[in-house]
Amino acid sequence: MARNKLGQFEPGTCGNPRGRPRKQPRKIHPDRLRADFFEISETLVPIIENGQRKLIPASVAIDKQLVLKAASGDLRAILEWNKMRHKHTLDYVKTQLDHLEQLLKSEEIVRKFPEDVTDQYKALTRNLRSVIDPDYLP
Fold first, then answer.
1. What is the 3-state secondary structure (H, E, C) of the chain?
2. Which residues contact 27 (CB under 8 A, 6 or more apart)?
3. Cα(106)–Cα(40) distance, rounded to whole angstroms?
4. What is the pLDDT along the chain (138 residues), one digit of tens a residue?
5. How open is the CA angle 27-28-31, to the nearest 5 degrees?
6. Count of CB atoms within 10 A of residue 71's CB?
7. CA 70 to CA 57: how far, in whole Å?
8. Cα dist from 21 to 15, 16, 17, 45, 69, whole Å
9. Which of 47, 48, 73, 105 has the most CB atoms around it within 10 Å of its CB?
């Protein structure tokens, strides 16, 4: 690149022939996005409840607002709340089914090998049954 005695480029010569480099797009990794989402949802936000200021997680504040809007008759809020209720109910049922499957396996082991089963294993089985069925009395 030719310059004159003052250090200036000759007319018609560009000082940056390749131009400004393009900005590289930020790569968003799904795991980082998920971690950021849950981290932000635990941020404490101030609310006023019964005349007193409280700090609660943002996710709880959002849920409270959703319930209040749904209760006031906002159709979108009602639909969203029903969707969330269905999801949480489904998750709970899946968890209970997993517990039941574990319980059935452990009771089968107790039936097949009663002499090899320790008292601690039997106690764990009873505890698992009580988690599934709170009315269970051993």
1. CCECCCCCECCCCCCCCCCCCCCCCCCCCHHHHHHHHHHHHCCEEEEEECCEEEEEEHHHHHHHHHHHHHHHCCHHHHHHHHHHHHHHHHHHHHHHHHHHHHHHHHHHHHHHCCCCCCHHHHHHHHHHHHHHCCCCCC
2. none
3. 40
4. 678 888 888 887 777 778 888 888 888 888 888 888 889 999 999 999 899 999 999 999 999 999 999 999 999 999 999 999 999 899 888 988 888 888 888 888 888 888 887 888 888 888 888 877 766 655
5. 135
6. 11
7. 20
8. 14, 10, 11, 41, 49
9. 47
How many residues in total does the chain contain? Answer: 138
| Token pair belonging to 19 | 């131009």
Q: Which two tokens stand for residue 93?
A: 């049922």
**Structure tokens, 96:** 């209970």
Tokens at residue 133, please? 């069925």
